[in-house]
Amino acid sequence: MELTNYSKNVVLLVLLIVFPFSIAAKSKSPCDFPAVFNFGDSNSDTGGLSAAFGQAGPPAGETYFGAPAGRYCDGRLVIDFIAESLGIPHLSAFLDALGSNFSHGANFATAGSTIRPQNTTLHQSGFSPISLNVQSYEFNDFLHRSQIIRNKGDVFSKLMPKEKHFSEGLYTFDIGQNDLTAGYFNNMSTDQVRAYVPDVIDQFKTVIKGIYSRGGRYFWIHNTGPVGCLPYVLDRLLITAGQVDKAGCASPFNEVAQYFNAKLKEAVIQLRKDLPLAALTYVDVYSVKYELIYRANKHGFEHPLQACCGHGGKYNFNINHGCGSKIKVKGKEVILGKSCKNPSERINWDGVHFTEAANKWVFEQIVNGLYSDPPLPLNMACHKK
């Protein structure tokens, strides 16, 4: 039976209502990102802190790399899965001078980094001095010097990105978690931590605008995860029984994370107005990570609030004896912070970071755009709508 024009319009309207994102996506061509430039903290650090302050030791890297590989994880991070999905190599850390290949981008993230500078040493606070503004300085230097090296045409030129990669590449961000925990570890109240969030967000916006002014156009921005579900937070910070939520997480800390995320989303909306040529994607990893922790068994995981690699206590986390730590027994070194038998069944690796299995699960949820604003998949992130 032939459809009338009216019937065709009704069918099209129904399709648009039921499948709006898939139809919109099919009307646009996939993005061909030749490079990725990443900024962040330990959630996406592929070797920056290790290069500057010493390698993250074994058993880090055991699941995928077979040895420590600069990541605070048993294997790959979300940023590694992003690179793989785009068909480019894993990102080399900008600070790593050994064996790095920057032809398809660079990673400026370092473990312990914050958006707002902490004005303390790594030894004093555990937070990296390489805050987001420093990472942006590194990016500016990399942009300039990489092209000088390429233009020389020597053996190193092939290890540098092409000039057009800086305008065609994807700029990824995963940072902010440490800005929240830094306040709590400095004995601030929840109200005090909330009070400085707007300033943190303003500094984030400044960095985005700086990259935009240098040609960056495509931004993939993760919000921060549920910090109140991390073993190192649950172990170190006091909470009352009434502050424990349905997943066993600390509500006050998660509420601050949600406040941070709300302000971050407002900033992204404003940046779209301020930067008309940019495509900015806001990715709600908080919801994904909380779902994984809350319904761990459903998704094939167990003991969601315990570290896989650690030693002792309710959460298998001890700040004095972390993952890979050793002690001497009768003159011999013995590993105290051992890895669990099957990291693929665990969400948390070392009390702070996710396992490769959990990172892979998170990536699989966000890659299709279901948790993004606008709701476009990763390979369509060069489009605004």
Automatic annotation (TrEMBL):
UniProt GO molecular function: hydrolase activity, acting on ester bonds
InterPro entries: GDSL, SGNH_hydro_sf, SGNH_plant_lipase-like
Entry-linked Gene3D superfamilies: SGNH hydrolase (3.40.50.1110)
Parts forming coiled coils: none
Position of the signal peptide: 1-24
Keyword field: Glycoprotein, Hydrolase, Signal
Domain of life: Eukaryota
Family from the record: Belongs to the 'GDSL' lipolytic enzyme family.
Name the UniProt record assigns to this protein: Alpha-L-fucosidase 2
Organism name: Solanum tuberosum
